[in-house]
Design goal:
This protein is of the alpha+beta class and 199 residues long. The protein folds into 2 domains: 61 residues, OB fold (Dihydrolipoamide Acetyltransferase, E2P), CATH 2.40.50.140; 131 residues, DNA polymerase, domain 1 (Orthogonal Bundle), CATH 1.10.150.20. It has 10 helices and 5 strands, in the order βββαββααααααααα. Strands 1-2-3-5-4 form a 5-stranded mixed β-barrel. Helix 2 crosses helix 3, helix 2 packs across helix 4 and helix 8 packs across helix 10.
């Protein structure tokens, strides 16, 4: 309904207020990561938005990056994952990081996010693993370590692709290597070597 809003930031934080003109100020809920990217109050801001409508409540969610909104919408499409849980997940990890966890089946990393248990993580992987947009997977701005960031995932996939592996095969091998030892993703070369052993 509302694709984005643009106005003057009155107050920042995860519950921001944006003046959009005509004497109207909107309350917008943001993830902690989006909140950190906001300009100082008094400056113009543009936020991609999602309006969640329930019988007893209307809530406007804002995102500095369009990829973050896409991931938010993807997450809330899964039964049991509401807007608050999705926003909590995006507060702890960047959209690209979550995309990488989903595509590689990294349930362990998903369970480290707020509101996500083992069953929820398994359901997210099954339902969303193949629905993650490529643009989100390869987007910049991940919060994890260099190799474990979306850029690191893209680099690892690129290396394995150069060796002749199909993208799906490379993703599965990288996912298995990281599930066995999450720390392996901190070193790109080691991650690729371990993935090759999982083939």
């Amino acid at each position: 309904m509302i694709a984005f809003l643009e106005g003057i930031l009155v107050s920042g934080g995860t519950e921001a207020v944006v003046a959009v003109g005509g004497g109207i100020g909107l309350d917008v809920q943001l993830s902690a990561q989006s909140a950190e990217k906001l300009p100082a109050p008094g400056n113009t801001v543009r936020l991609w938005t999602h309006l969640a409508v329930r019988e007893d409540n209307w809530a406007l969610y804002g995102f500095v990056l369009e990829q973050e909104r896409e991931m938010f919408r993807l997450l809330i499409s899964v039964s049991g994952v509401g807007p608050k849980v999705a926003l909590g997940m995006l507060s702890r990890a960047a959209a690209a990081d979550i995309a990488a966890y989903l595509r590689t089946g990294d349930e362990k990393s998903l369970t480290l996010l707020p509101g996500i248990g083992k069953k929820s993580a398994a359901r997210l992987v099954v339902e969303l693993g193949q629905r993650v947009p490529e643009a989100t997977l390869l987007a910049e701005g991940g919060s994890a370590s260099p190799a474990d960031s979306p850029g690191g995932m893209a680099a690892a996939l690129s290396v394995l692709g150069a060796m002749g592996l199909a993208p799906s095969q490379a993703e599965q091998a990288l996912g298995r290597a990281r599930r066995d030892d999450p720390a392996v993703a901190e070193d790109l070369e080691l991650w690729v070597r371990m993935a090759l052993r999982k083939l």
